[in-house]
Amino acid sequence: MLQKSRFFRFCVYTLAFLLIIYMISRVSFMFHPLFKMFNILIVPFALAGFFYYLLRPIVHFLTERRVHKIAAILLIYLVLATLLFLFSLVVWPTLIRQINNFAQSAPTLIEDFRNQITNIQNNRIVRFFNSDNSDLSNKLSESLNTVITSASNYVTNVIGIVTSFFIVVATAPIISYYMLKEGESIPRSVLHLIPSRYAKDGREVLDEIDAALSGFILGRMIITFLLGIMMYIGFLIIGLPYSLLIAFIATILNIIPYIGPILGAIPCVIVAFIDSPAMVLWVLIVVLIAQQIEGNVLSPFIYGKRIDIHPLTTIILLLVAGEISGILGVILAIPFYMVIKIIAVRIYRLFLAEKVEELVE
């Protein structure tokens, strides 16, 4: 009888949940303003969160040495503004020049790519294994043409895109300032919304979430930055064309766990192949050495055992998030999953604990 009662309650809850989803889907137009507001706020708040976890250790370091918190934050912002100014003087002109050269040289790059494919097709060994490959060069060239054209249009419009979103993105440092200034009061505000009997568990969950996000974000940024420097130095040594641009793209893609290094290596290999097939080997050596150092030296030292997510779970999360929200979803998928996992595990433990208490009574 007890099992039937539980099954009946489960069916009722399931039907009620499905009914709620159905009703929401019928009046989804009412939520469009909320979705639009969420899309506007997600970018600055996500950036502010990244800045918060990146800069908070420095703020703690300064405040422990009796520097006033507001003065410490403003000092950090001054240093960041100086670094940004130096970046605009030293790195940005070279990066813009390589972007413009890449966009202007797109037809030449495609023709060079076609010539390289043709040379490979004319190789006797390749012709022996594949005699019907006359269209391979044209097909690959057309695919590369589409990719390079899209990339060229994108990179040439980057300045316009940044200008369009400048007001939205510029609010991130302001939000992060208040997060750094009043970060300790945020958990207390959240705990007021939790019933008093669960206050202790809520505090522990918030501490666990804070530690997980801090470790992941700070570690990921440090590793990505060091990996980008290693690849750029390696590309300079082997003489890869557009070395700064390619290293910059690979660094951005390496923010994505697991599949990021693979995606980042693709443009490196394509540019190297256009230059010469021998350059592909050198690029692969540079990328593999950098990734081996990152995987076997940097990641264990920086992460330790703080990141407990199975690689298959990560890949599924990235695929689903990329389909739903694009590149922003891919970047936020892992932190969001970590938060949900911590909360779900704690709720499940509380549920089991209450069931045990009911059985004991």
TrEMBL record:
| Keyword tags | Cell membrane, Membrane, Transmembrane, Transmembrane helix, Transport
Instruction: Please tell me whether the keyword Signal is annotated for this protein.
Output: no
> Entry's InterPro entries?
AI-2E-like
Topology of the protein relative to the lipid bilayer: Multi-pass membrane protein
Which superkingdom is the protein from?
Answer: Bacteria
Q: Which residues cross the membrane?
A: 7-25, 37-55, 67-92, 158-180, 222-249, 255-274, 281-303, 315-340
Primary location recorded for the protein, binned into one broad class: membrane
- Subcellular location, record wording: Cell membrane
| Family membership noted in the UniProt record | Belongs to the autoinducer-2 exporter (AI-2E) (TC 2.A.86) family.
Name of the protein described by the UniProt record: AI-2E family transporter
